[in-house]
Every structure is written in structure tokens, then in C-alpha cells.
Specification:
Keywords: 2Fe-2S, Dioxygenase, Iron, Iron-sulfur, Metal-binding, Oxidoreductase. It comes from Cryobacterium lyxosi. The longest helix is centred in the last third of the chain and has 26 residues, at 376-401. By secondary structure, the protein is α+β, with helices and mostly antiparallel strands. It folds into three domains: 5-60, no CATH class; 72-161, Rieske Iron-sulfur Protein (3-layer Sandwich), CATH 2.102.10.10; 181-429, Naphthalene 1,2-dioxygenase Alpha Subunit, Chain A, domain 1 (Alpha-Beta Complex), CATH 3.90.380.10. The chain has helices at residues 5-8, 21-32, 43-46, 48-57, 180-191, 213-220, 252-272, 376-401, 416-433, and strands at 64-68, 77-83, 86-92, 98-102, 117-119, 123-124, 131-132, 138-140, 160-164, 167-171, 199-209, 279-281, 289-294, 325-330, 334-338, 343-352, 355-365.
Length: 434
């Protein structure tokens, strides 16, 4: 390389499409010579130029989990979703469908909707009152003296969306990746029985983690650190991600209990016609996925100290609380836990190269009554604590990546899903740079 990577990447650059040719060559080489089985070089986690490329190559090109349909129960309900330089409005229309619009007024670029969620009819920009329909069409713009102003040319820009099993995904690329529908066909049968259309938000938590978005995702993709989650370890077997031959002595008894619980769970799934098999294509398809139904410890029903249910209301058409958790990972920004009594969705939205918003949403049956059918503090306790612990782990790694002493370290065998995420990421950026 003609210059040290750290020197090259000190100053903030433009998106990949407008970088100087020598910068593109240097960054391409950085990706090409990434050492398989090791964490990434420091600039991947610290440099604003690479962050800009991530926003263009990953969040500007691929399907991103934005929200669930439970967050938009009525026509006119909306959420705003911000990541990197982008801001989107995700809106339920009068026909029950979903529209996704860029939250940028076509007059002078002001944010149109400024609240994180709410209900609206037409969308009115607070700057000069340009008014748009829920589909984004410009319906009113006061233009004194203008005789050639064509409102039809100035509607809000639209983004693509897909709603699968009650989960809303968005893509701002002109031509979205085409294999997402195939991935949706994989996970829809697992999630449909929980019926998100008949759920409501019990609680939503937004945490800013002082770490690069990739560190947030890496942390989620392994349980090597799960000794640091005492609340979660009450119900989630700490042997998750391990296989025969990798079980440490102090977890052998837990491993045996896990295998017995998993066998019982699979018997119940076959009885109820629920899919449970592991599907793992994290880096072998563009819309990477891992999904399975896994047993929980204790009563095997929910994320509680004894594994007992946390809501008295079953979801959808499920017939049994003791169904463990249906766990799904999707590249690049989400993971999910679907249980018999509630659902938890996790969305990762990059803020800048060293900050990431992690949004966690707890969903319960729409007829569940707080204080009667569930205790909100108990419902959210395990993952609130786990999120705070993960925030601390991510921030430790971000500080380390900023040290001159940092160099990539090896992933352990139990961290194979981290390697798969990084491999997926590198492939996607290389495709973009090419």
C-alpha cells in the first residue's frame, strides 16, 4: 500500500462513489486483505470514511428492519427511522398498507416530521407548510406569483418496503437486492403463528451505544461473553452456539439439560406443526439469515428467573406457552425473539462511526392488560439489564479499537456467527467498491 491506512483515513471523505481513485484503491485493498477468522482492522471501527462507505454500501443498498406492524396499528400512524445521513417516514396508509418516504421536504430540505412516532393525516412541513399526502404527493404549496410551478414534480421521494410476518423492512436503493423475498419465505412460517397483527407495544427502549455499529452486531452474534449476562442466563442456556467437543467442564451438566429440553421442545413443535429446524445462511445469501426454535431453561416459557411465562396471554393461534424462543438473526441490523407470551425485536441504527442506536421493542397480545396480564417491570427486566451489559461490552471494544496497541484478534470456534457476519459485510462492500 502506498500509505499507511490510518494516515490515509484520518480525514473525512465522501461516499465511495465520490472518493478519489487512490482512496478507493487503498480501501479496496484493505477489504481484500482482511484476515479471515480475525476481527477487523481498527479503521473499520473508527474511521469516518469507512463509516460513509458502510452507509452507502450496506444501509444504502440492503433491506433494513425498520419496525413492526404493531407500531402502526391505525391508518395515519407513523414512525421515523434515522440511520447515518438518512431519515425515513414509515406510515400506515388508509388501505392498511405501508408507505415509506424520505423525511426530506422537496422545497429546501427541512425534516417534514420531527417526532419519533405519532399520527398524522397529510404531512405538513413546519418550515413553509408544504403539504404532502400519505403517499408523498405534494398537495399544497403556497407559491405567490408562480405561474409555472408543477406540484407533480415535487412529491416526497419514496423508498421500497416489504412487510413479512408483521415485520417492516425498508430499502432505499433504486434496485433492491432480489433475494429478500426468498429469505422472507424462509422465516414467515416460523413467525406467522405468533401473529404480530394482533399485538401491541408494551415498551420500547432506545439506547445510544458509544460503539461502531459492526461492534454492536458482532457482540450480538455470539454467546462467548454470556457469563456477563446473569439475568439472561437464568432462562437462556449459556451453551448456545456450542457443539459437542466445545463444552467446558463447568457447563457439561447444563449441556445435558439443554439437550433434553430441546428434544422435548421439538416433540411439541411436531405436535403443533411448528417449524423448529435451524436454517443458517448468514453469509451464503445477500439477505443473510439464521433462524431456529430453541429451548429455554426452567419452565421453558419465557425470559424470566425461572423460565415461567411473563404474560398470561398466548400470542396468535399458539396453543402452548412452553415453546422456548424462536430466534432469528437477519443481516445487517436486526435480531428477534418470538416467544409464546411476547415478542422482542431489536434494530440497530448507526449514528456515526462511533455511536449506534439500539432500539428494543417488547410486544404483547393486543388484549393483554398491564397490571392484570403482565407486569411491565418483570416483562422487560431481563433484556433491559442485558442491553446495558452489552452496551458496556461494546464500548470497551470501541475504546480498544481506538488504541495504537490494537491489532485484530482471532475469533473462537463458538464465535463462528461473528465471522459469518463480518464475511457477509466484507462481501457486500467489495461488491459495492467493484
Amino acid at each position: 500500500m502506498s500509505a499507511p491506512v490510518h494516515t490515509l483515513l484520518k480525514s473525512r471523505g465522501k461516499l465511495a462513489s465520490s472518493l478519489r481513485a487512490e482512496q478507493v484503491a487503498e480501501i479496496t485493498e484493505l477489504f481484500d486483505f482482511r484476515r479471515v477468522g480475525y476481527s477487523l482492522d481498527a479503521p473499520f471501527y473508527t474511521d469516518p470514511t469507512i463509516f460513509d462507505i458502510d452507509m452507502k454500501a450496506i444501509f444504502g443498498q440492503h433491506w433494513i428492519f425498520a419496525a413492526s406492524i404493531a407500531e402502526l396499528p391505525e391508518p395515519g400512524d407513523y414512525v421515523t427511522v434515522d440511520y447515518g445521513p438518512f431519515s425515513l417516514i414509515v406510515l400506515r396508509d388508509d388501505d392498511g398498507g405501508v408507505n415509506v418516504l424520505h423525511n426530506v421536504c422537496r422545497h429546501r430540505g427541512a425534516r417534514v416530521l420531527t417526532e419519533p412516532a405519532g399520527t398524522t393525516g397529510n404531512l405538513v412541513c413546519g418550515y413553509h407548510s408544504w403539504t404532502y399526502s400519505p403517499r408523498g404527493d405534494l398537495v399544497h404549496a403556497s407559491a405567490p406569483g408562480e405561474t409555472k410551478f408543477d406540484k407533480g414534480c415535487f412529491g416526497l421521494k419514496r423508498a421500497h418496503n416489504r412487510v413479512v410476518a408483521g415485520l417492516i423492512f425498508v430499502c432505499i436503493a433504486d434496485e433492491p437486492p432480489t433475494d429478500f423475498d426468498e429469505t422472507g419465505e424462509i422465516f414467515e412460517p416460523y413467525l406467522a403463528p405468533h401473529d404480530l397483527s394482533k399485538t401491541k407495544i408494551a415498551y420500547q427502549q432506545n439506547i445510544i451505544e458509544d460503539g461502531n455499529w459492526k461492534l454492536v452486531m458482532e457482540n450480538n452474534r455470539e454467546c462467548y461473553h454470556c457469563d456477563g449476562h446473569p439475568e439472561l442466563a437464568c432462562s437462556l442456556f449459556p451453551t448456545w452456539g456450542l457443539t459437542e467437543g466445545l463444552i467446558p467442564l463447568h457447563l457439561e451438566e447444563v449441556w445435558d439439560r439443554n439437550k433434553q429440553a430441546q428434544s422435548s421442545l421439538e416433540d411439541r413443535c411436531r405436535r403443533y406443526g411448528l417449524p423448529y429446524e435451524v436454517v443458517e445462511e448468514l453469509d451464503t445469501r445477500v439477505a443473510g439469515i439464521r433462524i431456529s426454535r430453541d429451548a429455554l431453561d426452567g419452565d421453558g416459557e419465557s425470559f424470566s428467573p425461572d423460565g415461567h411465562r411473563l404474560s398470561k396471554k398466548l400470542l396468535g393461534d399458539l396453543r402452548d406457552f412452553r415453546l422456548g424462543r424462536c430466534s432469528m438473526h437477519l443481516q445487517p441490523n436486526s435480531w428477534f425473539h418470538f416467544l409464546g407470551d411476547h415478542v422482542i425485536t431489536f434494530a440497530v441504527f448507526p449514528v456515526n462511526e462511533h455511536q449506534t442506536l439500539v432500539r428494543t421493542t417488547w410486544l404483547v397480545a393486543d388484549d393483554a392488560v398491564e397490571g392484570v396480564d403482565y407486569d411491565l417491570k418483570k416483562l422487560t427486566h431481563t433484556w433491559k439489564q442485558t442491553n446495558l451489559q452489552d452496551k458496556a461490552f461494546v464500548e470497551l471494544c470501541q475504546k480498544g479499537a481506538g488504541s495504537p496497541a490494537y491489532e485484530p484478534g482471532p475469533y473462537m470456534k463458538s464465535e463462528y456467527q461473528v465471522e459469518a457476519f463480518i464475511n457477509w459485510y466484507v462481501q457486500r462492500v467489495q461488491e459495492h467498491l467493484a
